[in-house]
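User: I'm putting together a teaching handout on how multi-component assemblies are represented. Below are the sequence lines for each component of a complex, exactly as they appear in our records. Could you produce the 3D structure of the whole assembly as structure tokens, so the students can see both representations side by side? Please keep the chain order the same as the input.
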Amino acid sequence: EDQVTQSPEALRLQEGESSSLNCSYTVSGLRGLFWYRQDPGKGPEFLFTLYSAGEEKEKERLKATLTKKESFLHITAPKPEDSATYLCAVQVRGGGGNKLTFGTGTQLKVEL
Amino acid sequence: GAGVSQSPSNKVTEKGKDVELRCDPISGHTALYWYRQSLGQGLEFLIYFQGNSAPDKSGLPSDRFSAERTGGSVSTLTIQRTQQEDSAVYLCASSFQLAGGETQYFGPGTRLLVL
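Assistant: Of course. Below is the structure of the complete assembly, with chains in the same order as your input.
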């Protein structure tokens, strides 16, 4: 069974204090790994897609990396507006169809 | 351009009543997905449409849940004889569908509360 585990469940940072969120996955065959940001009361907002080990993508203060077992979302010098829940999801090849299997998310709070 | 839209934003119903939730995907997106997000749990897949057909219904939790899509566009998720455990946020997403791995874009969700 495909599994996605995110850690930590919650993270509190001071503004400017860099850190990383982890997404570990166990799948039969990875088609893609997706990162989303979700603000309270809203739907998930797409951030990145990674397709193969060694791939990296960046957007502003965020950088996503991928290995064969896990993905990291690195947040450099975060600001309060980066506070949100960050969701990781995988799409698998073959019989898994096109659905996304999500982790339970990391709730990030960035304080002044 | 316009994103995925869902209606209603919020729905409060009584146990045993039927509810219909609507999703308007991004124009041109052939694939449409329904997910459910319960308090303290991750998003769980319900059903996937490619055009008007549903090749994957594996996530529907019971036969009280059904969905349809017409004209390759709008989709409706229907829950019959609602139960309190159906209370959740129902999210719709859409994507192009080429070889797989395409990004799914989510709507704002419908918050369902069953009293």
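A couple of points students might notice: Chain A has a mean pLDDT of 95. The two ends of chain A are 41 Å apart (CA to CA).
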